[in-house]
Amino acid sequence: MAFARTCSVALVGVDGVVVEVQADLEPGVAAFTLVGLPDKSLTESRDRVRAAVVNSGAQWPQKKLTVGLSPASVPKAGSSFDLAIAVATMAAAELIDPRAIADLVLIGELGLDGRVRPVRGVLPAVLAAAEAGYEHVVVPERTAGEASLVPGVSVLGVRSLRQLVAVLTDGPVPEEEPDEEGRPDPMLAGLVVPGAGVGTGLAADPGEGPDLADVAGQRGARLALEVAAAGGHHLLLSGPPGAGKTMLAERLPGLLPPLTRGESLEVTAVHSVAGILPPDRPLVRRAPYCAPHHSATMQSLVGGGNGLPRPGAVSLAHRGVLFLDEAPEFSGKVLDALRQPLESGQVVVARAAGVVRLPARFLMVLAANPCPCGRHSRQGDSCECPSSVIRRYQARLSGPLLDRVDLRVEVEPVSRADLLAARGEPTAAVAARVLAARERAAARLIGTPWTRNADVPGHELRTRWHPAPGALAAAERDMERGLLTARGLDRVLRTAWTLADLAGRARPEAHDVDLALELRTGIARGVPVSAGGPR
């Protein structure tokens, strides 16, 4: 038989499309033709596959070989098709039974010596194969743990093409010589790509990351941080340099609850495609933290690049924290590009090669100085910036963007008394309250698509879950005076629900709404706040 077929997966963003790999051998001058919209790295697979087959002890067919990747209209990129092309070619040459590979999904890059090298995006590829009904997947041994996260799929991890051929032909499986101990492993080069993370780091395990107790003073900012973690509310920290804005933001991931199984798979899929998934941690269980530099471009922040778009910082922060330090220094167009993902939880990027939807449900934290020199305050202090310069600087954060920020807090300079005072509450104590508040919200929202207060649409929140009678009076007055937009009123109500959840109340009362207004507008409402959170 001169024809064989098997399957692999093409990634479009973080979604996979099952691709049928067909190999056809015909009499004629020996040639290798690859069709089906391959990119440059995939076109080069012809040389990799030929050398891998020969160095694995098999004979390369001296015939006209045509390999087709179907559907032909879907662009294919990367080297993950190497293994499928090699096996389909060997089956067409009757070195392998074609029936043994017809329902297999093969993913992996081939080295010239026949070793199967790991590739990025194994998890979303296996998820796509499972959704399409495939039950057997072959992946590089280094990524077998990542592929095994998908339930209902039998995963075979192989180290070389020789091993796979032995399994398919029921022959003795050869033992591959391991790399010498102490030498760097070149097989890991395909998994982690330096510079692809755009300032991304995975949150540390509980007890290992920075502790909130290290932050001196900042009672109001600590409260805002707790509320942001409990309800998923976006946060703006404004204050002079050295007040602790970055310290607060870095401790926010430690307050977030562990990811659920579904959320972990979503985050792991994005990090696998981006090439920042640690080889020893195939499943991301803690919320990620992404802090791009203020010189970040539009493509690096929201996604893009040549050909099909790749995940940007907003997707790398999916289900975690996106921290924009020195926010006014970012390009205005870059900041305004965040408005769509802040509302929808996803990024839709259209390019000539196709349209890609990337997940982007993150908790945004902005940090800003009050002026270029950083010394401007309500007391005057020693700021020498002209008023026009201060206005232009503060106007870099546009009104539509700030309207989507629920909490806006002034971070005051730390005093000597704050530095000498006893340490504040540790991260573990605050995280326990955050988890309890999240559980109350989830119990109230059971049977709906939402689990956090920040995700509930305003109309649903106003019509299905009512605050205490008269609780919204102050917010409605602010809306009539033009201090709040309709979106702002909805966001104040969401924050009030979070404050009620933190305090263990069944529904928001007037002082919850007043405190929510104070956190949003910065105008004091005379609401007392205890050291352990809202009461």
From TrEMBL:
Record-linked SMART domains: AAA (SM00382)
Source species, domain of life: Bacteria
GO molecular function: ATP binding; DNA binding
Classification via Gene3D superfamilies: 3.30.230.10, P-loop containing nucleotide triphosphate hydrolases
Pfam families xrefs: ChlI (PF13541), Mg_chelatase (PF01078), Mg_chelatase_C (PF13335)
CDD domains: AAA
Keywords: ATP-binding, Nucleotide-binding
Positions of the MCM C-terminal AAA(+) ATPase domain: 312-407
Family: Belongs to the Mg-chelatase subunits D/I family. ComM subfamily.
Annotated protein name in UniProt: Competence protein ComM
Organism (species): Streptomyces fradiae ATCC 10745 = DSM 40063
Gene behind this protein: comM
